[in-house]
């Protein structure tokens, strides 16, 4: 199976560790090498902007989705293959996920957590079987992984939930995980 589109959730800020920005660039480059389309929040700032910039520079198509109230705030790119403007953040998340074959979650803030938990919840409810890859760069998501394990250990989540999230350390790990998954499909 060929993957057409990968949704990337990540920060609209670069974060403090240089590794975050470096891995965002690596992810954009690798997406383009695989000839996969990037589906993302349409902004040109932070990790989001770096993934898009390097993906585009290396020939990838960019599918951006941005809510009306963020137009101009997140400085949307002018070279998108497709731009969808939504009315709400919820609609943005839905459009992004409905137009992808897999999700990759990089470091980010509350918005990134919201996006991660929404797609994880949808998977738990059986609404999709798309791969979810968590890029745990420098251990950034380790507290989240511990929390998910605690939720399962205390009976608030099915232990199978832990197997729905593929944890990797970097962009190469994310791409390799997705390539293996779809080669088996």
Task: Explain what the structure shows.
GO terms for molecular function: AMP nucleosidase activity. Its EC number is 3.2.2.n1. The protein is built from seven helices and seven strands, in the order E-H-E-H-E-E-H-E-H-E-H-H-E-H. With 185 residues, the chain is of the alpha/beta class. Helix 1 (18-33) links the parallel strand 1 (5-9) and strand 2 (37-40). Helix 1 runs parallel beside helix 2 (46-57) and helix 1 (18-33) packs parallel to helix 7 (171-184). Strands 4-3-2-1-5-6-7 form a seven-stranded parallel sheet, sandwiched between helices. It has one domain (5-184): Rossmann fold (3-Layer(aba) Sandwich), CATH 3.40.50. The protein has helices at 18-33, 46-57, 89-98, 110-124, 142-153, 160-163, 171-184, and strands spanning 5-9, 37-40, 62-67, 82-86, 102-105, 132-135, 165-168.
């Amino acid at each position: 199976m060929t993957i057409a589109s990968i949704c990337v959730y990540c920060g609209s800020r670069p974060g403090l560790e240089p590794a975050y920005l470096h891995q965002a660039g690596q992810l954009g480059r690798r997406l383009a090498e695989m000839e996969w389309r990037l589906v993302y929040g349409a902004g040109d700032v932070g990790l989001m902007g770096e993934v898009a910039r390097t993906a585009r520079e290396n020939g990838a198509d960019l599918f951006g989705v941005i809510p009306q109230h963020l137009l101009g705030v997140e400085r949307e790119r002018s070279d998108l293959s497709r731009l969808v403007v939504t009315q709400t953040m919820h609609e943005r998340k839905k459009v992004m996920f409905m137009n992808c074959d897999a999700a990759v979650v990089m470091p980010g803030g509350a918005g990134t957590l919201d996006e991660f938990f929404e797609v994880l919840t949808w998977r738990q409810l059986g609404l999709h079987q798309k791969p979810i890859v968590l890029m745990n760069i420098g251990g950034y998501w380790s507290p989240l992984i511990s929390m998910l394990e605690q939720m399962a250990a205390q009976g608030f989540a099915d232990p199978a939930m832990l197997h729905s999230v593929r944890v990797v350390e970097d962009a190469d790990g994310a791409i390799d995980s997705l390539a293996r998954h779809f080669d088996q499909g």
